[in-house]
Design goal:
alpha+beta, globular
C-alpha cells in the first residue's frame, strides 16, 4: 500500500526524467507506479495529471507515455533500459488541503510534472519537463507523429532570423548543458546569449511565442501567471542562446533565461532506432528555485 510522504521529505525535490532502474532491471523511482493501480485508480491518477496540464499538455503527456511502446518495439528485449508505458509514478507530499502546504508529482521517462500548493493556490508548477524519443516517429503506424513541435518550430524561426551580429551574441560553440535533474534549482550562472533588447519586434514576438509554447503545457490560469511574471520582469531582460545546427540529423540546443524562469532544450541524441538528433529534452523551470523554494 502506497503511503504519502511528508511535505519536507527529501524525495520531493529528488526528481528524475531519465530511466531509473536497478542492475536487475527493477524500477527504483519513488512513488506508486501506474501498473500497480486498478482501473479506477488509474483514472484518478490521470485526472490528477489533467489538473496540472492543459488539454494539449495532457495529450502530450499521454503521448510521451505511449512512446515507450515504440522504444520497446525498436530496441527489443535486449535493450539496456526497460521500456514500459506503465512505469510512470505518482507521489503525494504532505496532506492535500486548502489550508496548508502539500505537493504532488507525476513522473517517468521523459516526463516530470510537479506541483507545490499552499492554501489551495499553486505556489510552483515546476520543474515541468517533457521529452520525446523519438521526437518525430519515423515508420510504423504512428509515422510522422511529432510530440513537441512547440519546442522546436518557434525556436528555429528565431535562430534563422538572427543576423550576423546577433548570431555572434547568441551562438555558443559547445552544446548547452543537460537539464539538471535531482536538484531543486536549475544551477545556472549569469544569463548567456543575446538579450531580447537586441532583437527586433518580430524576433521578440517569436521568442514570446516559444515561451508561450512551454507555459501552455500547463493549465491556462497557471500559464498566464508564469507568462505575466516573464512580462512584468521585462521581456527585454530575457537572454537567448543556442548551439549546433538546424540541419536535419544535426544536434542543437538552446536556452532562454529571464529573471523569473529558464527554458532549456536539447536535441542531441539519437532515437531508439539510431536516427541522429531525434530525441528531445525540454523543460520550464522557475528561478531562483523550483518546488516553491526561495533559494538556489
Amino acid at each position: 500500500m502506497y503511503k504519502r510522504q511528508a511535505y519536507d521529505d527529501p524525495h520531493r525535490v529528488g526528481w528524475f526524467f531519465t530511466p531509473q532502474q536497478s542492475k536487475d532491471r527493477k524500477p527504483t523511482r519513488k512513488g506508486v507506479r501506474f501498473e500497480e493501480l486498478n482501473a479506477d485508480q488509474k483514472k484518478s491518477a490521470l485526472a490528477l495529471l489533467r489538473t496540472g496540464t492543459s488539454a494539449k499538455g495532457y495529450e502530450q503527456a499521454t503521448t510521451i507515455m505511449s512512446l515507450e511502446e515504440i522504444l520497446k518495439d525498436v530496441e527489443g528485449a535486449k535493450g539496456a533500459m526497460v521500456r514500459n508505458p506503465n512505469w510512470y509514478f505518482i507521489s503525494i507530499f504532505g496532506k492535500p488541503s486548502k489550508t496548508g502546504k502539500w505537493g504532488w508529482r507525476f513522473e517517468g521517462h521523459h516526463m516530470s510534472v510537479s506541483f507545490t500548493l499552499d492554501k489551495g493556490q499553486v505556489e510552483s508548477p515546476t520543474p515541468f519537463m517533457f521529452g520525446a524519443n523519438p521526437a518525430t516517429v519515423k515508420g510504423g503506424p504512428k509515422d510522422g507523429l511529432r510530440t513537441l513541435p512547440e519546442a522546436e518550430i518557434p525556436a528555429k524561426e528565431l535562430i534563422e532570423s538572427l543576423d550576423a551580429d546577433q548570431k555572434k551574441l547568441a551562438f555558443k560553440e559547445k552544446h548547452l548543458p543537460e537539464i539538471a535533474e535531482n536538484t531543486p534549482s536549475a544551477k545556472l550562472g549569469e544569463p548567456i546569449g543575446i538579450p531580447a533588447s537586441k532583437l527586433n519586434d518580430k524576433q521578440r514576438a517569436t521568442l514570446m511565442k516559444m515561451l508561450e509554447g512551454y507555459a501552455n503545457r500547463m493549465p491556462a490560469i497557471v500559464a498566464a501567471k508564469e507568462l505575466k511574471a516573464v512580462k512584468d520582469a521585462g521581456i527585454e531582460k530575457v537572454h537567448f542562446a543556442y548551439s549546433g545546427s538546424l540541419e536535419a540529423g544535426k544536434g542543437y540546443t538552446y536556452q532562454a533565461q529571464g529573471p523569473t524562469f529558464v527554458v532549456q532544450f536539447l536535441n542531441v541524441q539519437a532515437d531508439g532506432s539510431g536516427n541522429p538528433a531525434n530525441h528531445i529534452h525540454s523543460a520550464w523551470r522557475k528561478l531562483p528555485s523550483d518546488f516553491g523554494l526561495s533559494e538556489k
